[in-house]
Amino acid sequence: MTAIRKAFLAGALSLLSTSVLAAAGDKVEVFSTSGCGCCLGWVQHLEDAGFEVTNENLAMADLYAKKMDAGLKQDQTSCHTGFVDGYVLEGHVPAREVTRLLAERPEAIGLTVPGMPAGSPGMGESDEPYDVLLVLKDGSTEVFASYPEEKGIRAQ
């Protein structure tokens, strides 16, 4: 089997496993401001992975209050906020990491991709590196996954 075929099969299996796990009925409640195209792109990314997503538009002050009430710090925020099964999802978190979070169930507030990095779900194509951070209950963070992945190595 060629290296290209192996890489294709590994990617297809990864996407399939994400979709199958999310298709179990995980519901994500998203809050954003109206007219944000990248927020809609992230919602579509989650839906494509099998999540059931609702999206409510809020005034910026109300959205910011939701972020702070969830336990996020200002430097951990992005343009939209989601909630799934007791966890917060801030910003352009890849669906695969949401699925991993729900499978591993760490003692944490949730996941964040601070800012709006190019190449993250909803932000278009790019090889710009970014981290998905696990927000711990004390407000500190640790790297949950890094993108883009090295060839053949799953984000850790």
From TrEMBL:
<feature type="signal peptide">
    <location>
        <begin position="1"/>
        <end position="22"/>
    </location>
</feature>
<keyword id="KW-0732">Signal</keyword>
<dbReference type="InterPro" id="IPR036249">
    <property type="entry name" value="Thioredoxin-like_sf"/>
</dbReference>
<protein>
    <submittedName>
        <fullName>DUF411 domain-containing protein</fullName>
    </submittedName>
</protein>
<dbReference type="InterPro" id="IPR007332">
    <property type="entry name" value="DUF411"/>
</dbReference>
<dbReference type="Pfam" id="PF04214">
    <property type="entry name" value="DUF411"/>
</dbReference>
